[in-house]
Design a protein that fits this description.
Cytidine_deaminase-like (chains A, B), Cytidine Deaminase, domain 2, alpha/beta, homodimer, 8 helices, metal ion binding (chains A, B), hydrolase (chains A, B), five-stranded mixed β-sheet, 145 residues
Chain lengths: 145, 145
């Protein structure tokens, strides 16, 4: 298991333990995690703190040069909002835990030149399957359905 | 002057008075503002609280049905991140103060069926021109340049 994907999964599990939506993310610059986060919809009543957005926020203000040498890891295929944040900051590479329970805007990322790798990780899939089964209304709210 | 664009401009001016980036936004549902905000990069050290994102956050958790009947006003053409948030939540209409100082992802919004109206408002243009002239490095950081 990739240590950075594991860190994103740890974030997702922490979110689940808090009663939240189990999606986690880390941003890695030159082999070091500079931001980590998980979805905060339930915990903070937030409409914008998806896992990836929380990782961007926790990384703090960074110069463009840092983003352009960073890799973003996320347990789930990035939704349009998180895709937009990746494009805004010019993140060149995104590692996705899985896209079987939700297909985000990967096509747009690739179209704009972002390298996207999808791992179809069994733990990520099982975690989201269980969550969607248990709390379908919460999940639908999170993806605007 | 449209009262809702004026409310977005008021938010932008408040941000400027706080030493921040002068971009404001409001989200209007059935003729009533449900969320308002302005860029918080300087004030909160935030990488994700653009004006539109702050308006989404301040609107709180809303069901999809509310977003789909809402209009988003913003003083400036929405960047890729804010464009993605608009797409995630299915906002059908966006009123843009101006796109002369910055051209966001309006083409993607239109491609995905969002109605976009650009007003080329003189106050919005003057406010951003002055800000970009005075603080070019801060502006570049905000748009990932």
């Amino acid at each position: 298991m990739d240590a950075f994907l594991q860190a994103a999964i740890d974030e997702a599990r922490q979110g689940l333990a808090e009663g939240g939506i189990p999606i986690g993310s880390v941003i890695v610059h030159q082999g070091r995690i500079i931001g980590r986060g998980h979805n905060r919809r339930v915990q903070q009543g937030s409409a914008i703190l998806h896992g990836e957005m929380d990782a961007f926020e926790n990384a703090g203000r960074q110069p463009a040069s840092v983003y352009r040498e960073s890799v973003l890891y996320t347990t789930l295929s990035p939704c349009p909002m998180c895709t937009g944040a990746i494009l805004l900051y010019g993140i060149p590479k995104v590692i996705v835990g899985e896209n079987q329970t939700f297909m985000g805007d990967e096509a747009l990322l690739r179209e704009r030149g972002v390298q996207v790798e999808v791992l179809q990780d069994a733990d990520c899939i099982a975690m989201m399957r269980g969550f969607i089964r248990d709390k379908p209304e919460l999940w639908n709210e999170d993806i605007g359905v």
